[in-house]
Recover the amino acids of this structure.
């Protein structure tokens, strides 16, 4: 028995032509019979650091009965020089979430995955308590179950008021131990009741992990890192996956 949350999340590698660049985390989101891959915006492009891949690959399971069977699926990031991914903006500026549509007809035969859907997004009327226990599903430093090609989960708690934009930005904070490679991870809250709508994933998708948060005044020799992280609100996916 495999928890479906583990099948929503896949390792993503970025390339420029044949040169490997970085590894990160991504997950599937489906809507209106369309399939999307979601990750952090800086995974697709980060001009400040010179990170500009032209394609990505994700590792997919190809046999439901044998999770050791997998294949790499390549997705181009540009067509005729134009980016194929979408990245949102709001009044505070660019949102560090990127979405690219997956050509389902090109997927390998027998591919096995699970997806979040709009039913997994939180109802605006629901209250999420400060300090609530969350999971971050991903590939920290690329680490994962290499035999079964599955991610690992890390524990986190909500560290700022959920629903309130921290410092006016489109994210909230978590307190969690995270590493490079976690960018693009789904941050989820266990749902103990019934989720209305078409989904087989009994988790609420609260946000997408972006990066660790630090302060410029920290004395690197005296002070530990804050251990706080920026997580962008997942409701932006409804905008990024619309027609």
């Amino acid at each position: 028995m495999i928890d479906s949350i583990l099948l929503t999340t896949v390792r993503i590698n970025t390339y420029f032509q044949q040169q490997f660049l970085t590894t990160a985390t991504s997950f599937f989101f489906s809507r209106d019979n369309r399939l999307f891959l979601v990750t952090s915006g800086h995974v697709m492009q980060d001009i400040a650091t010179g990170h500009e891949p032209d394609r990505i690959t994700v590792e997919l399971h190809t046999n439901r009965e044998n999770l050791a069977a997998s294949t790499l699926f390549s997705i181009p990031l540009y067509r005729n020089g134009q980016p194929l991914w979408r990245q949102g903006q709001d009044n505070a500026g660019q949102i560090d979430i990127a979405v690219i549509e997956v050509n389902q007809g090109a997927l390998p035969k027998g591919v096995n995955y699970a997806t979040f859907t709009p039913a997994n997004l939180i109802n605006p009327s629901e209250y999420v308590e400060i300090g609530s226990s969350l999971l971050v599903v991903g590939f920290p430093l690329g680490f994962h179950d290499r035999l079964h090609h599955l991610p690992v989960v890390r524990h986190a708690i909500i560290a700022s008021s959920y629903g309130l934009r921290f410092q006016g930005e489109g994210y909230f904070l978590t307190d969690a131990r995270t590493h490079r490679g976690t960018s693009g991870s789904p941050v989820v809250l266990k749902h103990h009741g019934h989720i209305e709508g078409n989904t087989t994933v009994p988790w609420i998708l609260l946000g997408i992990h972006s990066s660790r948060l630090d302060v410029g005044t920290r004395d690197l020799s005296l002070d530990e890192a804050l251990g706080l992280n920026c997580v962008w609100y997942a409701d932006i996916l409804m905008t990024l996956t619309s027609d």
